[in-house]
Amino acid sequence: MTATDDRADLGKDPARVSGMFDRVAPAYDRTNTILSLGNDRRWRTATTRALAPIPGQKVLDLAAGTGTSSVAFAQTGATIVAADFSPGMIAEGTRRHGDVPNLSFVEADATALPFADEEFDAVTISFGLRNVQDADKGLREMLRVTKPGGRIVICEFSHPTSALFGGLYGVYNDWILPPLAKLASSDAAAYDYLNESIKDWSDQPALAARMRAAGWTDVAWRNLTMGVVALHRARKPFADESGAQPGPETAAASPR
């Protein structure tokens, strides 16, 4: 069976999605930089600032891929667990960054995390939640392994806030990205799926609502690159909190 025959689709079969990431692991970071026109570095920097890990904290970086963001988190002195359900990504990350202090790699499924309740001070996931077959279950699992008062930061593709810019972004995704992916990637079919998954994904208010439904509180988001990407942040409530969640009209959102 060829990679095209076994291409991941919006059904998000875990074996197919994992296999797809296994195949693209060696060139994944370079391809992302090319296809994002270099914006991936800015998005990672914004995520690190939003997460703001400090020494003594334990942080789960889920869907960590080759660990590019995990390394930046570990440089703050926090203990970082880089988890991904792709063995190929874990192997590539371990090969590149296995000697980085405070950083370890673990194979893990976002819907059944192999960690104890309330194990982490914070959890983050970048460009991975939309690839989880049951993203809502994944959000609940991330809540489970986070300590009360702990934080979540989600960096994910979203919906541009300007109709004009959204139109230009659509032209790029539909007409420029596919041939560019064929030139830059080792598996162009994988990027066909990834492009489809971006179009199918929740917009900013919808993801915020899903986070609140999973049990997160103080949900807010900040747009990056005019909404092409959004950083969603939230907190796990303490047991003695009322559990009241802010509605969409009161959830803090910044257009920056």
Structural class: alpha/beta
Taken in chain order, the helices and strands follow as: HHHEHEHEEHEHHHEEE
Low-confidence stretches: 243-256
How many distinct helices? 9
Shape: globular
Query: Can you identify the CATH superfamily?
Result: Vaccinia Virus protein VP39
Under CATH at level 1, the class stands as Alpha Beta
Percentage of residues assigned to helices: 40-55%
Query: What is CATH's topology name?
Result: Rossmann fold
Secondary structure tally: strands:
8
Per CATH, which architecture? 3-Layer(aba) Sandwich
Fraction in beta strands = 15-25%
| Mean pLDDT over the full residue set | 89
The Cα radius of gyration reads 17 Å
GO molecular function: methyltransferase activity
Pfam family, one: Ubie_methyltran
Function: Methyltransferase required for the conversion of demethylmenaquinol (DMKH2) to menaquinol (MKH2).
Protein name: Demethylmenaquinone methyltransferase
Indicate the topology:
Elements lengths: L13 H11 L3 H8 L3 H13 L6 E5 L5 H7 L4 E6 L2 H11 L5 E5 L12 E7 L8 H10 L1 E12 L5 H22 L3 H13 L3 H11 L2 E8 L4 E7 L16 E3 L2
Parallel strand pairs: 1-2, 1-4, 2-3, 4-5, 6-8
Antiparallel strand pairs: 5-7, 6-7
Helix pairs in contact: 2-7, 6-9, 7-8
